[in-house]
Design brief:
Elements (H helix, E strand, L loop, with lengths): L5 H14 L5 E2 H8 L3 H13 L3 E8 L2 E8 L35 H15 L1
Antiparallel strand pairs: 1-3, 2-3
Helix pairs in contact: 1-3, 2-3
Bound molecules: iron/sulfur cluster.
Length: 122
């Protein structure tokens, strides 16, 4: 595992997935790009999936099963996810829609959405 802080690495992985657009990217291709072991890569993919930022789709590639990592929301450009609080949230493992910690009740997320909305409005 590189010495990079894990949350920074998660952000980097997410941005690379976003950069591939709606089709996403094969996880093996991504791990190669980032020089990650499949064990470390899979752990990061699972975290992004739990944060509901990506989905993993099982695909057959050259006769072997693997996963394609697909962004659930594709922003116009990756800079628009800059500062998304979920990318560095320590509550992510307990956050779920309808739960006691949830996106609907999350103030940092609400602030981030409003700030970005204001920026977009100019
Ligand atoms: S608590 Fe808020 S910032 Fe954290 S993962 Fe949930 S929605 Fe995102």
């Amino acid at each position: 595992m590189p010495s990079e802080n894990e949350e920074d690495l998660i952000s980097r992985v997410y941005k690379l997935i976003l950069g591939k657009g709606e089709r996403g990217i094969l996880q093996s291709e991504l791990w190669k790009k980032l020089n990650l072991t499949s064990r470390d890569g899979s752990r990061i993919a699972t975290k992004l999936e739990r944060r509901r930022l990506i989905m993993r789709e099982k695909v057959l590639q050259n006769g072997r099963w693997t996963y394609r990592l697909i962004p659930l929301v594709v922003p116009v450009d990756t800079s628009s996810v800059e500062g998304l609080p979920c990318l560095k949230c320590s509550y992510e493992s307990r956050c779920e829609p309808g739960g006691s910690i949830s996106p609907e009740k999350c103030q940092p997320l609400e602030r981030w959405v409003l700030e970005n909305y204001r920026k977009a409005e100019g």
